[in-house]
What we know:
Elements: H1 2-11, H2 15-24, H3 28-56, H4 58-67, H5 70-95, H6 98-112, H7 118-135
Transmembrane segments: 35-57, 78-96, 116-135
Keywords: Cell membrane, Membrane, Phosphotransferase system, Sugar transport, Transmembrane, Transmembrane helix, Transport
Organism: Proteus mirabilis
Amino acid sequence: MQMLVIGFxxxxxxxxxxxxxxxxxxxxxxISRLLIITLIVRSLxxxxxxxxxxxxxxxxxxxxxxxxPKVLLEGLGIGAKMVPAIGFAMLLKIMWxxxxxxxxxxxxxxxxxxxxxxxAVAILGASAAAxxxxxxGNNKNSSQQNEDFEDGI
Length: 153
């Protein structure tokens, strides 16, 4: 199934150019149509796989798995392993600045060398951001008024 999804995403990559043209024209309806069409096609792909698996049974799915060319499976496997790296590179291209460079490298060291899970790094990062926010003085109300101490609350 994952192989089909990756293939589907590769085949629908051309829609990004069309979405960009719709965005330049501020055509929200066009973008919505494009998204709905791709979601319908993807849903039909899922339905087709589910139907074929149920109708023909486990033996047909096993036959397809065994007779799929290994070169195709290896190529899709390599492509699937590249997707997170490409996504991270795109994220860095958008967010990169001198101010956050150190944070990215700290997170990289924590996951790569200290072998911390991504969730642990995310929680530590969110905690550090909250501490910075509360102790840097950026948490003041816009009115800058101090409230009185009332009834112990």
